[in-house]
Fold these 2 entries.
Entry 1:
Amino acid sequence: MDIIFNGKAREIQDGICIQELLDQMQLDCMQVVVEHNNNIIPRQRLAETPLNNGDALEVIHFVGGG
Amino acid sequence: MDELIIAGRSFNSRLMVGTGKFASNEAMVASMEGSGSEIVTVALRRVDVDNPQDSLLNHIDPKRYLLLPNTSGARDAEEAIRLARIARAAGCEPWIKLEVTPDPYYLLPDPIETLKAAEVLVKEGFIVLPYINADPVLAKHMQEVGTATVMPLGAPIGTNKGLRTRDNIAIIIEQAIVPVVVDAGLGAPSHAAEAMEMGADAVLVNTALAVARDPGAMGVAFKKGVEAGREAYLAGLGKQQDKAEASSPLTGFLRSEPNR
């Protein structure tokens, strides 16, 4: 299925949850924040939030800034 | 002990530092350590999964530094509020350096959108440190909605030009009921010292440290500048005047004085 990941179309495995996608991408859930269809998903709910075709996902982290 | 107190929390250092634009994480850490800062700013951006990078948080000890996320990149209040909520969800304390800069050329803060966002974020329980132009009336409005500081700019971000807004910052300091943190444009320790001599409560520096040949040593230099300025302010600076006033006695010269 296809989702919009950080603003770009991306094909991902069908029927996975957000936590599984992060694991596949080797992203540490402790170091990112996830917005799913414009809602912030608390870390403890990443494993219970399924992804659907067409969903928008934003995965954000801290970078250097002033 | 001369502590900086923001929202009830005490800090020994009056120098906040940014973490952007450093050539390496090592240079950033050296600068943070040299500066003696206890508050460091960070930004929020999308993860780049195609170019994975070492996480910034691996280099910043949360026991030693208060992480102050900014809302840089926000062009209006809505985007700034969204970034602040994301920062809190990341597990940070609810401190936010609020900045709304719709114009990418001068990066000047939008006063109307910043005030709107400040009002919402204060109600949501954030400790809001707003980046503003050096506008004393705007600074008052920010304080009225409950911001924890005001952060007027000395000059546009990254310009290293120093206190171009000096006279307005003096008015903000005179009227402020919260700490005044001079942010942006401070390019040299003398600029930081000047702000502190005027009675600013703290300063925030990033570019001047990041672009230095030796960011660690520049961190130390800014620390000294801030401390010197603060101590001079507390000690009480003399007034400026036009007429000279001799420092040495005007009597007992080794010459014959004309009879009066």
Note: Residues 4 and 56 of chain A are 5 Å apart (CA to CA).
Entry 2:
Amino acid sequence: MKALLRRKNLRWLWILLAVVASGILTVALGSLKHFQPYNYVQLALDGLRAGSIYALMAMGFVVVYSVTGIINFAQGEFVMLGAMITLTVDGLDLPLPPALKLIVSIVAGVLLTTAVGALMERLTIYPARRSAPVTLIIITIGVTIILRAVALLIWGADPHVLPAFTTLALEDRIFRIGDVTIQAQSLWIWGTLAAILVLLYLFLQRSLIGKALRACAVNRRGAQLMGINPSRMSLLSFALAAALGAIGGIVLGPVTRPIYDMGVMLGLRGFVAAILGGLLSVPGVVVGGLLLGVVENLAAGVTYPAFKSAVAFVILIALLLFRPQGILGGGEKPAEEA
Amino acid sequence: MQTRRIPANTVGLVVFALVVFALGAVDLVRPFGLRFSDLTGRVVTLDTMIRIGILTIVVVGLNLLMGYAGQISLGQAGFYALGAYASAILSTLAARHGILPGISDAWWWPWLAMLAGMGLTGLFAYLVGRPILRLKGNYLAMATLGLGFIINIFSAEFPSITGGNDGLTEIPRLRIGEFLLWPMQRYYFLVWGAAVLVILVALNIVNSRIGRALRAIHTGETAAATCGVDTERAKVQALVISAMMASLAGSLYAHFQSAVSPNPFGFTTSVELVTMAAVGGLSSVWGAPFGVATLYVIGDLIKSRMEKILPLQGGGYELILYGLLLVLIMIFLPSGVTAGGMDALRRLRRRRRPDAGEQTA
């Protein structure tokens, strides 16, 4: 009992209470709409799908933030660019079988977006690398506006379509388990997230460049003294973040209709996911992303769909105020050195 | 014999007010049949000038918050929206539903609504400001952004009060007694009168105890606290003042447009406001009207010219310009164009007199 009342544990008690309370509230609101158990499962599954995308984006935030200390606002635009470039290349009249064409266009989407990310770092972040964090965040906002406006000029204001990976058509295959339905594309999304997690882990833990990247995240000055070029690591982190964003956009493409301004809300939710996970650990933000997806989908499901985006922002502000180190981060580590 | 020196700011303000009102008078008096837009070759119209005046009020507030106190706000359009909606809701719905008959259709009711809007927005800013301003840098940026988004999302809901996505229309024009502040030629004087007043207030704040406290916080919050500045209080004061200015501008916008909807108060507007403040120079009250005017007129020009070449997509080019300006200014002149320009001038002067340069170096 004494241990339970210690300050640190008391905090967990509060979190537990909040979770139980919101769970009861959800069920209460759901029963007003006559929800059956499968409704909740369906909402949670759809939430997990969206959450996987948030997780991919949150990884991008973490990679850039831990290496450079910058919140990269343009992360959402990388998602948009990935989807848009892929569907454009896929729409070209290439003499290839459809499956191969899709693979080619996916590769093109990832590579070109990565190039955009690298270019962004060289042209805008590198010249201002000694500026205050607020200056840098405004710079990334400026880049966001430019990328979105360019996308508007190239792709127009109408939504586009990307074929589902399984059927290579607009209609996706749907699996039914009892009353719950799962689109085949959801499986692609979850599979991609898992594969990326493994690859990123191997890259960061095993490869020399990955180790250099981590060294830079731990201590930039120290890494520099060990002969690591921090400016090159900054470039690498932006390129990596852009690639992660592009992959997220491409696997998401078939389940939404990609549009030039899709990056705004996605980017902000990715950021909320990153904050949930503490902004510094990749596994943490993946859990954060999945959690955010489920919570916002359930909350919107039992109330009004229009409040879906408000949920993320309410979580964001509550987190920033009460637990800026994230719910999964250690209690001691300050998330930002002022 | 010593004469009493008149502060440069007072002279500047009087000259500024005279020029602005003289420009407005052109359309009232119509000398030689000229209209205001003829003076600028039809590039800047009276309508544009009024919009510039309204945004100037917001940006002056943003300058106080960002330039002097050093606290970023990416949700200023939210406070702007609160003012606009307070005026719109109080001045249309009360009369329509017959609440407070005899009062809600009096001429002074919209003015009261405007004040109420400022009060409510200030109170709201005070309540959210205490916790939010504890955050720093990136986190403060994201929190204010989230706040702006939440206000925007909620203003698109509750159709019975806010009108939902369509917003509210038929907001009455302002009048004093029987004197209607409309057409535009009359409204111009109200807007720019308010803008001059807001600039005067801001200048006084900057040169007061609060202003010095804010600048101290900007330089170093810990240092300021050590010197006895109640940093939290000063920051919240700056936020409340800037929010009230934004709210005032919102009310003026609502009565000018005669309609409000969620669209013009979104995140893009918040970013545009920050860009305008940055172009004018963050730590300069005087930068505000110039920043707003520069960006507004250039953006307008690009939009209208490009529309002729590529219909419907002129807005894209305008946004690219905003983004480019924001990036370039933040890279090369992070203290703003005005301050950066001053620095460049000083450097130039120093180069001309090499001996003086060595002394200061």
Note: The CA atoms of residues 300 and 308 of chain A lie 5 Å apart.
